[in-house]
């Protein structure tokens, strides 16, 4: 069953509200620049925004996670989904938007380690990490440290099988590429990192968060609040039309619709207290293993 995870009362309000309430006098306010992940994993969240909910005071920019991370850091975006580890690195400059994430509670399908060896046998081997995700890369490093195995890590673009260097013993890939490329032609083992984290900790895992720049949230509170409400309404529309989301994703990726349905059954777009607790635990583990320079305090809009 695909989870309609938003709070019922809130979502009912969004479904019945008028678009008039989202209007802002654009002559007195500059545009709010908002990022959008170009993978299908965020499709439920952007469903309504892709179908007419975007008002004239919002500018949307699409890109992979690493590009959106850089754009919000460089003040080219005011609000964006970002890798959760990116938030941890810049937590003093960012605020988490409540109840929005890309997360899982076990298997996730789109964040995988493809390997010539079982993960416990990767000590001293060459592991290539995609440059598209700081969070998944940090997760692989953390799991390796916990297992007392020390691969040689390389970071590069990994979106096609042809991107794999000859010396690679394993590769970590994410997003649409993880589900569509024939990685099994090159590697023997497919290790789902969402499932691996759950087997180790029993916790959900949060790959991405939606954040606002702290200075923007303080100076343009009303705009950010209205944008957050739009995200909630857009997500409600996405889950209300999940069959269309699934059909669109299957067509885009050339996958069977039953596989894409399973994907959206496993994927979560909310951020409940269990995921917040798991996020805290993940960040603390990264700090204790020297993978973050300081402890992270979660700060919400």
CATH architecture group name of the largest domain: 3-Layer(aba) Sandwich
Shape: globular
Mean residue pLDDT: 91
Find the CATH topology of the largest domain.
D-Maltodextrin-Binding Protein, domain 2
Strand order within the widest beta sheet: 7-6-8-5-9
Oligomer: single chain
Counting DSSP H or I runs of 4 or more residues, the number of helices is: 12
Number of strand elements: 11
Write the layout of secondary structure elements.
Elements lengths: L7 H9 L15 E6 L5 H4 L11 E6 L1 H9 L5 E5 H6 L4 E11 L6 E5 L10 E5 L3 H13 L5 E5 L13 E5 H6 L8 E4 H9 L3 E9 H6 L1 H20 L1 H12 L3 H10 E2 L4 H16 L13
Helix pairs in contact: 1-9, 9-10, 10-11
Structure overview:
The chain is an alpha/beta fold and 301 residues long. It is 40% helix and 21% strand. The chain has 2 domains: 8-104 and 205-288, 3-Layer(aba) Sandwich (D-Maltodextrin-Binding Protein, domain 2), CATH 3.40.190; 111-201, D-Maltodextrin-Binding Protein, domain 2, CATH 3.40.190. It has helices at 8-16, 43-46, 65-73, 84-89, 134-146, 175-180, 193-201, 214-219, 221-240, 242-253, 257-266, 273-288, and strands at residues 32-37, 58-63, 79-83, 94-104, 111-115, 126-130, 152-156, 170-174, 189-192, 205-213, 267-268. The strands form 3 sheets. The chain has a 5-stranded mixed sheet. Strand 6, helix 5 and strand 7 (152-156) form a beta-alpha-beta unit. Helix 1 packs across helix 9 (221-240), helix 9 (221-240) packs across helix 10 and helix 10 packs across helix 11. The radius of gyration is 19 Å and the shape is globular. The two termini are 30 Å apart. Residues 6-18 have low confidence and may be disordered.
């Amino acid at each position: 069953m695909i989870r309609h995870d938003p709070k019922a009362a809130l979502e009912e309000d969004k479904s019945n509200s008028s678009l008039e309430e989202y209007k802002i006098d654009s002559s007195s306010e500059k545009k709010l620049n908002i990022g959008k992940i170009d993978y299908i994993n965020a499709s439920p969240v952007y469903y309504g925004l892709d179908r007419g909910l975007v008002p004239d005071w919002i500018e949307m920019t699409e890109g992979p996670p690493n590009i959106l991370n850089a754009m919000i850091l460089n003040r080219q975006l005011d609000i964006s989904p970002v890798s959760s580890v990116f938030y941890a690195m810049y937590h003093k400059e960012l605020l988490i938007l409540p109840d929005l994430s890309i997360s899982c509670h076990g298997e996730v399908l789109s964040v995988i380690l493809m390997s010539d060896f079982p993960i416990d046998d990767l000590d001293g081997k060459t592991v290539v990490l995609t440059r598209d995700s700081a969070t998944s890369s940090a997760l692989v490093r953390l799991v390796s440290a916990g297992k007392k195995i020390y691969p040689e890590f390389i970071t590069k673009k990994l979106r096609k099988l042809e991107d794999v260097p000859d010396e690679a013993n394993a590769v970590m890939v994410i997003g649409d590429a993880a589900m569509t490329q024939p990685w099994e032609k090159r590697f023997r083992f497919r290790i789902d990192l969402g499932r691996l984290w759950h087997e180790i900790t029993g916790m959900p895992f949060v790959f991405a968060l939606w954040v606002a720049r702290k200075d923007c949230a303080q100076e343009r509170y009303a705009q950010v609040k209205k944008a957050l409400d739009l995200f909630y309404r857009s997500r409600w529309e996405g889950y209300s039309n999940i069959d269309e989301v699934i059909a669109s994703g299957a067509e885009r990726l050339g996958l069977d619709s039953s596989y894409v349905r399973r994907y959206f059954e496993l994927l979560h777009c909310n951020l409940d207290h269990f995921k917040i607790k798991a996020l805290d635990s993940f960040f603390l583990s990264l700090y204790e293993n020297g993978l973050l320079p300081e402890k992270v305090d979660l700060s919400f809009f």
